[in-house]
Amino acid sequence: MASVLGMLEERETTARVRVEGLREEVARLAGVLEAAEIELDRRAIAREELVEALAASAAETTAVTGVEAERETAPAPAPVPGSIVPPWREGLPVTVLAPDYQRILDVLEERQPAGQGPLKAKEITVELGLQTTPAKVEGVRSKARRLAERGWLVQETSGMFSVGRRPVPGPDAVPSA
Predict the structure, then answer these.
(1) Domain 84-163: top CATH class
(2) What is the pLDDT of residues 110-138, one digit of tens each?
(3) Radius of gyration of the chain (CA)
(4) Phi, psi at residue 162, to the nearest 5°?
(5) From CA 29, how far away is CA 95, in angstroms rounded?
(6) Angle at 89 between CA 45 and CA 108, to 5 degrees
(7) Structural domain boundaries of the chain?
């Protein structure tokens, strides 16, 4: 009987060592993932800042002419996939958003008049008619999060998204006390 108990203890010890090794690996990978996400955010911010700086520079150096004034009254060109999500502000139409972002807003706006509550990213994915693979759900979650960060949506603490517009302070805004 003692040899069977000894074998079981040995197997338990082996399993415990394996679990600890896997926990260490998960912790290491979490650190690597966090560093990669920070790098991605930094690169996206750098790209957005460059686009804004170039736009501001072009606006300062270009004199407004009659042709340009006509262009200002003409509708803005349709956004293309991968374009930047501008911060929401009063009077900014939804049409400034890329089609994927507009579709997410449409799904959530359709629920509001019906009195239905917020949606999880997976539910939005289903409503969009996409497969609920992890990659598709994460893509929708990323876009919805970006819309929430820029004031187009509201992200609940539970990770659910709902319609709600709010101005978002710019990078040079002074925080209020």
Answers:
(1) mainly alpha
(2) 877 666 778 889 998 998 999 989 999 99
(3) 24
(4) -145, 165
(5) 39
(6) 90
(7) 1-74, 84-163
